[in-house]
Design brief:
278 residues; single chain; alpha+beta
């Protein structure tokens, strides 16, 4: 008799994943399930599969494992982490409004913003950006049009007036030899930028499109939004606060001087619940 798995479809700014609570049920082969279930014609349809679990270490409350639509495992996803915060709180699995989430890129702290007992938005402490990592980027003398930023996972941010080249150029750059682990590629354009009469505290609006490694073009990418904001600040195109406008919505990013951490704030939404056979 075929086993049925209960799942919840959620999205953060259109970046949609299938969520399974592994504290109640197990997914035997998550890589295979991610490929089959993510198919938008023959499956549930998503950018990938996210497994929620109980943390094995005292430093965190829960765990997150992410499998992209091609079955590869991702290290971190900002949009998925916000959705997990909403899931845990609104499904009654926790009463905490600050949740420590263990990911492959470390423990991330989620701060839930509650209105009428609903999670309206979530702020995620994404940690410090890493600007040099030869295990993720070896192209300092090969590629010179973009800026490398790791938010636990590798990103390459290109500022351009043509953000719609995301499909053709993003597909090519994801597997460029400069990126040993492949790479997420962002194409960004300053909409309202930092000028002579603006202070660094002013918020810059940046239009960004993303090619995610393992998934292709997605509606949004939390770590990609963070990387874009950091790259803009490094290139003096923005101050420490930016609104990143992606295909599926807007994320607010702050790169704080006080601790050098990047903080991402945005929404999370339920889509539907269901069951699927494995």
């Amino acid at each position: 008799m075929a086993q049925k798995i209960r799942f919840t479809k959620m999205h953060g700014c259109g970046n949609d994943y299938i969520y399974v609570n592994t504290m109640e049920q197990k997914v035997p082969n998550p890589q295979e399930a991610a490929v089959r279930w993510s198919d938008r014609y023959k499956g549930i349809g998503s950018d990938g599969l996210v497994l929620i679990g109980k943390s094995p270490v005292p430093e965190a409350d829960y765990t997150m494992h992410i499998y992209n639509a091609d079955g590869s495992e991702a290290m971190m996803c900002g949009n998925a982490s916000r959705c997990i915060g909403k899931y845990l709180y609104e499904r009654g699995l926790t009463t905490k409004t600050e949740i420590r989430l263990l990911t492959l890129s470390g423990v991330k702290t989620l701060k839930l913003h509650i209105i009428n007992n609903k999670v309206e938005s979530v702020t995620v402490d994404m940690g410090e950006p890493v600007l040099e990592d030869e295990s993720q980027f070896m192209g300092y003398r090969v590629l010179d049009k973009g800026t490398f930023v790791s938010m636990g996972n590798p990103h390459y941010v290109i500022f351009t007036d043509d953000v719609d080249q995301v499909g053709e150029t993003g597909r090519m750059l994801e597997k460029h030899p400069a990126f040993p682990q492949r790479c997420n590629i962002e194409f960004a354009k300053i909409v309202s930028g930092k000028t002579a009469d603006r202070t660094p505290a002013d918020i810059t609006t940046i239009r960004t499109r993303v090619w995610e490694r393992g998934s292709g073009i997605t509606q949004a990418c939390g770590t990609g939004a963070c990387a874009t904001a950091v790259a803009a600040a490094l290139k003096d195109k923005a101050g420490r606060k930016s609104d990143i406008v992606m295909d599926g919505g807007t994320l607010s990013i702050e790169w704080r001087e006080s601790d050098n951490h990047v903080y991402m704030t945005g929404p999370a939404e339920f889509v539907f619940d269901g069951e699927i056979e494995i």
